[in-house]
Amino acid sequence: MSRLVIVSNRVAPITEGKPTAGGLAIGVYEALKDTGGMWFGWNGEIDAEPATVPEIAHRNNVTFATVPLTRRDYNTYYRGFSNATLWPTFHYRDDLTRYQRDDYNGYRHVNARFAALLAPLLEHDDLIWVHDYHLLPFAQACRQIGVQQRLGFFLHIPFPSPQVLMTVPPHEALVRAMCEYDLVGFQTETDRTAFTDYLVRHAGATLHDDGTVTAFGRTLRTGVYPIGVYPDEIAQQATARATVKHILDLKQGLQDRKLIMSVDRLDYSKGMLERFRAFERLLELWPNQQGTVSFVQVAPPSRSDVAGYGEIRQQLETEAGHINGRFSDLAWTPLRYINKRYAHEVLMSFFRASQVGYVTPLRDGMNLVAKEYVASQDPADPGVLVLSCFAGAAQELDGALIVNPYDIDGMAEALRTALNMSLSERQTRHASMMATLREHNLSTWRNRFIADLRPPTTAAKPALLRTQPAAASVDG
């Protein structure tokens, strides 16, 4: 069987049960460790000189091949084009986009360097699975140095509509580079349609009935592969830490009040400011909720040196202070805004202790937090998920209360509905969503993508199914 080689911007140190770099890192590791193979990417370190060979380490049946970045590469490739240009644009925040040609040149340079460092490690029949927006031109860089192995790409974040994408000056070069992959996968049909719509409208592409598309002289396959979690493993985690001090402190502080729970990376795409304002509106419109419910927002800091992140933190701190100043009394603080990391199992226990999961991003590729919230619940007395219509998960989790995060009153009404929902309705909604999570778990995501990436003559071979699932992680 072909070896699986995964390439991502960051190869994070994985210690199960500990805080990690995010959902992509854990999702990739869980997808890889059952089949075995190699994981290649940046090790998170900054060195004065560029690497000449990757550092190799082995853990179980996974080979880790990692390289540092230089300070210049970090500033142009990572802070610059990846996170100051692509991230805001792909999340429909072109008002926050900053583009500089030097950043784009650095982005191309790092992709080319990654390709050159990986190439000597490859075997002739490897399947190469590349992840996320940092590496859009990676396949093109590989082809230019003679790499012929099958190359697949999966985008974890949204793909913007053509008119939004075109605000990035090198948009045509980026899409042309993406067409060097054999398979390009997305979280939702909306994202795939945005990609193929660009190809048809602006590259004269031809769409075929079998899901392939011909553009820029190549024929590639596109697909929709919604990433999942292992729900039964998460359910076990949610009960494993019930006596941990964090959980006991949380329950003591609640004093039998209902709990609304949110967990997000500190990022302007997560809609936390709108979420705070909707909670304030709940307390304003229904004064009987005052003193009966608490809202906990856990938001670990993220990309603090990227433009725009310091501002959103300041806005959230101001809004939290405003809400608490307006509604608090000596016995009750309505909103707890916490900027720290917790172990994954502790977060799952927080979810299980809550009556409402509040997941309202302004735009998100999937949002694994929504799925983890559902999986962590007690099926005998489950909480209610309030979920943004702009999260990819909204297309799968039909038992959630779907809201528009730009409608503050609508979100307040959904919170009130969730807090007062009957047990029988909560159980019915939860059971439906758990069935979906089990059917479309992380193994399904991996196996479907790998099967489609194989050469056409071997695509029908069954992929290895996971028999002992492990946990996914809170996603950002």
Number of strands: 16
Which structural class matches the secondary elements?
alpha/beta
Count of separate DSSP helical elements: 16
Shape: globular
Oligomerization state: single chain
Q: Give the CATH superfamily of the largest domain.
A: Glycogen Phosphorylase B
What's the CATH class of the largest domain, please?
Answer: Alpha Beta
Number of domains: 2
Strand content: 15-25%
Q: Which second-level CATH architecture of the largest domain applies?
A: 3-Layer(aba) Sandwich
**Helix proportion range:** 40-55%
Distance between the termini: 33 Å
Largest sheet: 10 strands, mixed
CATH topology of the largest domain: Rossmann fold
Pathway: Glycan biosynthesis; trehalose biosynthesis
Keywords: Glycosyltransferase, Transferase
Protein name: Trehalose-6-phosphate synthase
InterPro entries: Glyco_trans_20, Trehalose_OtsA
What does this structure look like?
It catalyses: D-glucose 6-phosphate + UDP-alpha-D-glucose = alpha,alpha-trehalose 6-phosphate + UDP + H(+). Belongs to the glycosyltransferase 20 family. This protein is of the alpha/beta class. The chain folds into two domains: 4-224, Rossmann fold; 231-439, Rossmann fold. The protein is 41% helix and 18% strand. It has helices at 23-33, 71-90, 101-118, 138-144, 162-165, 171-178, 189-203, 231-240, 245-254, 272-285, 309-327, 344-353, 368-376, 408-419, 423-439, 442-453; strands spanning 4-10, 37-47, 55-59, 62-70, 127-131, 150-154, 183-186, 206-207, 212-215, 218-224, 258-263, 293-298, 335-338, 356-359, 384-388, 401-403. Strands 3-4-2-1-5-6-7-10-9-8 form a ten-stranded mixed beta sheet, sandwiched between helices. Strands 13-12-11-14-15-16 form a six-stranded parallel beta sheet, sandwiched between helices. Helix 2 (71-90) crosses helix 3 (101-118) and helix 8 crosses helix 12 (344-353). The longest helix is centred in the first third of the chain and has 20 residues, at 71-90. It is globular. Residues 15-21 and 458-476 have low confidence and may be disordered.
